[in-house]
Amino acid sequence: MGFFLETLFGGLMAGMLYALIALGFVLIFKASGVFNFAQGAMVLFAALAMARFSEWIPQWLGLESRLLGNLLAFLAAMAVMVALAWLIQTLVLGRLVNQEGVTLLMATLGITYFLDGFGQTLFGSDIYKIDVGMPKDPVILAEDTFPGGILLSQEDLLAALVAAALVALLALFFQKTAIGRALRAVADDHQAAQSIGIPLGRIWIIVWSVAGFVALVAGIVWGSKLGVQFSLSLVALKALPVVILGGLTSVPGAIVGGLLIGMGEKLSEVYLGPLLGGGIEIWFAYVLALLFLLVRPQGLFGEKIIDRV
Amino acid sequence: MLYRENGQFKTSYRADQQIFPIRQDRLFIGLLLALAFVVVPGLAPEYLLRAVLIPFLILSLAALGLNILVGYCGQISLGSGAFMAVGAYAAYNFQVRIEGMPLLLSLLLGGVCSTVVGVLFGMPSLRIRGLYLAVATLAAQFFIDWAFLRIKWFTNDSASGSVSVSGLQVFGLPLETPVQKYLFCLALVGVFALLAKNLVRGAIGREWMAIRDMDVAAAVIGIRPVHAKLTAFAVSSFLVGVAGALWGFVHLGAWEPAAFSIDRSFQLLFMVIIGGLGSIMGSFFGAAFIVVLPILLNQVPGWFGLPLSTATAAHLEYMIFGALIVGFLIAEPHGLARLWSTAKEKLRLWPFPH
To answer: Which residues 67-96 of chain B have a CB within 8 Å of chain A?
Structure first.
């Protein structure tokens, strides 16, 4: 039982991180109808920027304090992501208005490749570490109830907290601010929003910046756990089935989907894996999403506007 | 000037509907084929055959297959690498397990197995489309990658999923030197390209295009979406599967599942986009472009005295591919093939532009 719970919690924590990446997808899809394949590349790019700036900025400025260095690096990386959002809007999406979803998807594939190459050219392609002072030691819970207790990594717990805080922040942003209202208006109907004077181009830059911010947070959390390297963009591929499962337009869906997939993945690896030869973590999420699509194409919380064939 | 067609009259439907109705086109294609079959094997150095032409031909075939699905039928697939793997491993199994199996037959049977798997994973396209289908095909990619790595039966109990073939023979002729391999691939690709061209010109191709352009309207005028989509998946994965078998048997000789990873799927999709969605010719252009670009990136800067490190060249390649995809989608969604036909249009009127 203790082992089961430990696996379960481990899965939930990993799922929270998938959800963090999936959130970026959902934001962009909600506001612009673009299925952003490049979200994973953005996570890698943001994490690379953060890792390198946190190394470079203290060197340039001669700073001693790690906190200040990290803070400045975060701001610098965020500035990079905003610039990136502006570039993507001006150079790519602005010119592909009114194209089909599939064309836009392929365009974001192009952006993915470009970002992968560009990020590594700019920031180097070794393994870097982000040190924002995440605690590394595991904690042991419920020692009395189960023999040996349940081993939880504090890092994962903290990551889950960060993710939860981020979701709350985004919810507030969407519900309470004027920009958030404009974003929701654009999400509902581009043309109507435009006709009452909401500038579409600027809104999309904001959405991509917010997605960049989410990518940065996800990148920092993953990066400080695993180190920043190219394989981070593969982790991001896990976020695709998460959004499919949760529904493309639903923020809570991304969270629930992430938790479900993280949990299912770890449990199936541990309990089904030995029967099937192991390594089923690679495809479990995808096959689950595929089966789910056949039953309920709009996902758990998605709006039922998907065009059936 | 070069393409002036006056005086070329067609007096029968037959003449009007041939693949190359213009004499200059026929001449050009004839010359090209003569060049490919006669001149190239005699003159091309071994490196060129082995590293450029053979991969180009095989990837053209795979791109052709994917183009039928994505370009003609509008069903986006990110799992073509997996279907190549199915073709390769199935052909390997036929070759190893059945005594005296002819090579050509096992390649084709590899294609048939890939067809079955392709149709199976094409089933979701009846319920979902576009973005969702892309994710569904990714499921095929990950699952099949895993299956060939873990299920030992497929790889004849070899460790790490790597297998090798040797002593290839076609109709009693050995298939050992690059020239022989090149000619074999060329002949196969030629036959399949002709078949594909005729398929997309015919009734079934019209159905695919109707489904691509507007599936509801297509259904209204009596096209069966299920039939059209599944045939597109079938034909596409057959070609991709044969290409995969060729890639394993003829080009690599020994391979492991990583040869057909998700990168291969993306590579094929890029060939189709850059070459031209919905164009047979475009598949060849795209394949040529994607095979040649990395080689150029590795060689050309060296000639100017600016040798790039391997890592930089790889990153540069990524950036160029990415930028080109976006560029083509914005500026010329029909890819290199459209540029080619525009050039032909211009040549018709040259030197008078009006």
So the answer is: 74, 76
Residues of B in contact with A120 (CB under 8 A): 311, 315, 318
Helix, strand or coil for residue B162?
coil
Between CA A173 and CA B291 the distance in angstroms is: 47
Whether B319 sits inside 8 A of A109 (CB atoms) is no
pLDDT average, residue stretch A95-115: 84
Q: What's the pTM? A: 0.87
Q: Nearest CA to CA, how far is B117 from chain A (Å)?
A: 15
Model confidence at A145, in pLDDT bands (50, 70, 90)? low
- Which amino acid would we find at residue A280? I
The CA distance from B195 to the nearest CA of chain A, in Å, is 28
Per the CB < 8 A criterion, the answer to whether B205 and B223 are in contact is no
Interface of B with A in 300-329 (CB under 8 A): 311-312, 314-326, 329
Q: What is the pLDDT of residues A22-44, one digit of tens each?
A: 888 888 887 777 888 888 889 99
E-only strand ranges, chain B? 163-164, 169-170, 173-174, 254-255
Query: Phi/psi at A140 (nearest 5 deg)?
Result: -115, 125
DSSP string, A56-74: HHHHHHT---HHHHHHHHH
B225 contact A CB<8A: yes
The Cα–Cα gap between A273 and A280 comes to 6
Q: Do B318 and A283 touch (CB under 8 A)?
A: no
Residue B186 to residue A261: CA distance in whole angstroms: 46
- List phi, psi (to 5°) of A305: -105, 0
- Two structure tokens written together for B320: 């160029």
Q: Give the Cα separation of B272 and B206 in Å (integer).
A: 19
- The answer to whether B142 contacts A96, with C-beta atoms less than 8 Å apart, is no
Give pLDDT, residue A309: 46
- DSSP code string of B72-131: IT----S-HHHHHHHHHHHHHHHHHHSTT--HHHHHHHHHHHHHHHHHHHHGGGGT--TH
Give the tens place of pLDDT for each residue, A151-205. Answer: 777 777 887 888 888 888 887 888 888 888 888 788 777 778 888 888 888 888 8
**Highest-pLDDT range among A228-242, B161-175, B313-327:** B313-327
Place of tokens 């994917």: B66
